[in-house]
Amino acid sequence: MEETFDMFRMRLEHMVRMDHPLVVLGSRIKWVEIEKSLSHLFQRKPREVRELELEDLFGTHRVVVVPGVSRAGRKRLPFRLMASLLYLKHAFNESDESVVERWGESPIWQMFSGEIYFEHRAPCDASLLSRFRRLMGEEGVEELLAQTVMAAVEMKVIDPKELESIIVDSTVQEKAVAHPTDSNLLETAREEQLPVKQTYEKEGKTLNRKIGRYAHAKQHGRLKKALKRQRTVVGRLARDVQRKAEKAVGGVKSKLALTLEKANRIVEQSRQKKRVGDTPKLYSFHAPEVECISKGKSRKPYEFGVKVGIATTWSGNLIVGTRAFAGNPYDGHTLREQVEQATILMQETGVTYTPPQQAWLMDVETFIGLARQRQDS
Fold first, then answer.
1. In terms of C-beta density within 10 A (0-12 exposed, 13-18 middle, 19 or more buried), how is residue 285 classed?
2. How far is CA 35 from the centre of its chain?
3. Domain that holds residue 168
4. Both 255 and 192 in a single domain?
5. Are residues 126 and 241 both part of a single domain?
6. Radius of gyration of the chain (CA)
7. Do the beta carbons of residue 347 and residue 340 sit within 8 Å?
8. Is residue 21 part of a domain?
9. Secondary structure E strands in the chain
10. How far lies 127's CA from each of 4, 52, 100, 120, 287, in Å?
């Protein structure tokens, strides 16, 4: 970021303590190297080929449009600013909206993001964070984590020898989705259909409201009848959209096909009350990766989310690897991939991790107990 002199504003270095952990960490992370390694993820990509149907005096004919790389739109925000917002969001357990709001009130956060003068405003719109995460993907997050580990070693926060032993644990990262009842999923599938001649909007809302009352009153006969009507409505809309999809082309056709596939899965699983064949159940229309994972907790027997693995050092408790696993694999089957990722992320530190002959997993309670025994000894 170019530094411009402004005598009417106070510099951030005169407002904060330079020994603050966030200030020190922001000055030690190699932002330029991270941006260079991830620059290929943020390059503008050419638009896809589209086919348009045009009507004139001679009838209907198709025209193929091959656009180039678009240069339209405003200039992108600095990489360090967006990456810092993403780091602060997870470090302080904030949402996209709250981290953007707090950034305009905290000079320490602004200095961590590379700003020079205090700005009492939001750095960007909260929706830009979700787009930035999609562009970074798994590769970008792993690069940020590797640079964090490298910064901890250079700052001597952790001894490099401590990286030779790691602890791997698996848990569930819950997704912010509604409870997946058949009625709510069918109503969501109805709302996601394209506008057709008859949308059944009024009837769909009425059925969804009645089903909630029937379930509370344990009137199972009326409940089954209302669910059957919901499946009929979604099926009719799906057939109407299918006829429109046959005439569509390009990306619109693929999007319609994906929507129809989800709608048909919801209809079939609500009819059979179980998974259809080898196809897993769909618990969220907008997040198909969500799985129902049993945790055995008395207060919450099931959690809806994605299974993740976390690798930490034995004594320093520094996170050196984290990875999401599709489906609901057995914990022991995730150990090899998690150890492999942690080894790759720590290779820049010069420490070679050698996995033991007998690797084992532990839950959080066992890990806390062993850590306390180690501290007492």
1. buried
2. 21
3. 161-175+290-376
4. yes
5. no
6. 26
7. no
8. yes
9. 50-56, 59-65, 166-174, 291-294, 302-313, 319-325
10. 29, 31, 10, 19, 17
**Six token digits for residue 151:** 């910064």
pLDDT at position 265 over 50: yes
Query: pLDDT, tens digit, for every residue of 105-119?
Result: 999 999 999 998 888
Report how far residue 350's alpha carbon sits from residue 345's, in angstroms, rounded to the nearest whole number.
11
Q: Does residue 26 sit in the same domain as residue 93?
A: yes
User: Do 171 and 296 share a domain, yes or no?
Assistant: yes
Reported as a single tens digit per residue, the pLDDT across 6-44 is 667 778 888 889 999 899 989 888 898 888 888 888 877
Q: Reduced to 3 states, what is the DSSP secondary structure of residue 64?
A: strand
The reported pTM is 0.71
Decide: 42 and 135 in contact? Cβ < 8 Å. yes
**Given the structure tokens 């200030």, which residue do they identify?**
23
**206 and 168 together in one domain:** no
Is 170 a residue whose pLDDT tops 60?
yes
User: Are 143 and 34 within 8 A, CB to CB?
Assistant: yes
The pLDDT of residue 75 is above 60: yes
Of the candidates 168, 193, 183, 273, the residue with the CA atom closest to the CA atom of residue 230: 183
